[in-house]
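Supplementary Note 3. Input sequence used for the single-chain structure prediction.
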Amino acid sequence: MKFYGALFLLAMVFISGCVSKTVNIDPTTSLTKTEQTTEDGVDLMKSDYQKIKFTGVGVVSPMTGTKCLYYEFAFFSGDTIYGNYKSDEGFYAKVNSEEVKLQLPPARLYLKPTFEKNYITYDKSNPENINKAAENVFVDAPPKVFTFKEWCILPNKTYLLKVKKESFYLPPSDPDSEPGESSATAYQISDEEYSDKEKKDHETPQSRWTY
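The predicted structure, written as discrete structure tokens, is reproduced below.
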């Protein structure tokens, strides 16, 4: 009986090894994106990153006149943001064969600006809409020079989309209780694959939302 019992245990170990395999991934390792795309859009089972083109009604940026699916722009003086605005119209992606409407949140954008320029504050050579917006933004002690940046999700442009579960803690209803952990789905959109450090450099202001 001991002999048959040992054989049974060996057989179970062999079967379990065939059914599942645990893979430990170093969190500092950069995951490369696949070149594969599907007609149904993003397939989460195939890759962390997928190439995708977004769709939507489309909006026109009031600052640059660029035709976008989504835009946001901001006024900077150094690292300080003085004004940050975004369009309200959503845009769409196919995720696991289902059409998903995206907004910020739950999307986060990691993009290079589609427009960036330094201006002398209230200079007569500036575009009129830039000066009018600056008057509303720089109410007290305006800087001598500011930077205007705009980011757009453009139609017919290929982006990278990663769907990720983000964990966060909710404050307890009872002061004596511990905060409760929860999670939500976030959609990370980038114009190329970035490291975690590069993501911080390319994260748009409106993408810094919190739960």
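The chain has three helices and twelve strands. The first helix runs from residue 2 to 19.
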